[in-house]
UniProtKB/TrEMBL annotation:
Domain MSP: 7-124
Membrane topology, record value: Single-pass type IV membrane protein
Gene, per the UniProt record: VAPA
Natural source organism: Iconisemion striatum
Name this polypeptide is given: Vesicle-associated membrane protein-associated protein A
Sequence intervals crossing the membrane: 218-237
Length: 243
């Protein structure tokens, strides 16, 4: 009895192409599509298992679904005069209703239930045009990345400046409020000092006058100091805003 036809649709259908140079791992993708209304189990085999890594190498494909298999060729010394004899085979079988042990499924499968497709491995070296395109793509990639990164790096200081400007404005407002309060106290002390100078002098009055004048001079010094501090903050804020 002849084997049934392969139920899965393979892409590519015949050849797995690997494009060098083969100094690094080269990957070729194989797409399996299940057009039937049943679940299908698959297994991928090769004549050179030490030369390839297949992920996934087995599994179940639901009805109407598809899966992409990555076939990774390991690095080797390529000889153009040597013809590749590597082959792959995709083995399939309709999945039973309750499949749990895949090893038992494949071991107990009957030959008239199995379907298979064979693929040949083809090694290709890149052409001169491909080499030029790869070099140009490598050179242009860092330039594009740097251009994309500029708006992000430029936007961060703006947000930081906005937050810092708000803090400086709040500090300036507090300093201005303190200056106004101290100025009012200074004015009141001056008026009190003037009134006391006009009164008859005595030892007690002289002592009080001296204390008042001392407080007056001390308080008069504080607004000047706060004004200087406020000017420094405002100058710093204005400089950052202009830059």
């Amino acid at each position: 009895m002849s084997k049934p036809d392969q139920v899965l649709i393979l892409d590519p259908p015949c050849d797995l192409k690997f494009k060098g140079p083969f100094t690094d791992v080269v990957t070729s993708n194989l797409k399996l599509k299940n057009p039937s209304d049943k679940r299908v189990c698959f297994k991928v085999k090769t004549t050179a298992p030490r030369r390839y890594c297949v992920r996934p190498n087995s599994g179940v494909i639901d009805a109407g679904a598809s899966i992409t298999i990555s076939v990774m060729l390991q690095p080797f010394d390529y000889d153009p005069n040597e013809k590749s004899k590597h082959k792959f085979m995709v083995l399939t079988i309709f999945a039973p209703p309750n499949v749990s042990d895949m090893d038992s499924l494949w071991r107990d499968a009957k030959s008239d239930e199995l379907m298979d497709s064979k693929l040949r491995c083809v090694f290709e070296l890149p052409s001169d045009n491909d080499k030029v395109n790869d070099i140009e793509a490598t050179r242009s990639a860092p330039v594009m990345n740097s251009v994309k990164a500029e708006p992000t790096s430029a936007a961060m200081p703006v947000a930081a400046d906005d937050a810092e400007m708000k803090k400086l404005l709040e500090r300036c407002k507090r300093l201005q409020s303190e200056v106004n309060k101290l100025s009012e106290e200074n004015r009141q002390l001056k008026e009190e000092g003037i009134r006391m100078r006009k009164m008859p002098r005595s030892d007690h009055m002289t002592s009080n006058s001296t204390n008042v004048l001392g407080r007056e001079n001390g308080v008069a010094f504080l607004p000047s100091l706060l004004v200087v501090i406020a000017a420094i903050f405002i100058g710093f804020f204005s400089g950052k805003f202009i830059l």
